[in-house]
Amino acid sequence: PALLPDGADRLARLSGARLPVAGLALTRPRVMGVVNVTPDSFSDGGRHGTALAAIGHALRLAAEGADILDIGGESTRPGADPVSEQEELDRVMPVLEGLAAAGCTTPVSIDTRKAAVARAAIAAGAQIFNDVSALTHDPESLAAAPLAPAVCLMHAQGDPRTMQADPRYDDVLRDVHDYLAGRVRAAVAAGVPRARLIVDPGIGFGKRLEHNVALMQGLSMLHGLGCPLLLGVSRKRFLGTLSGVAVAAERVSASVAGALHGAAQGAQILRVHDVAATVQALRVWEALNPPVADRQT
Ligand SMILES: Nc1nc2ncc(COP(=O)(O)OP(=O)(O)O)nc2c(=O)[nH]1
Question: Global pTM?
Answer without folding.
Answer: 0.94
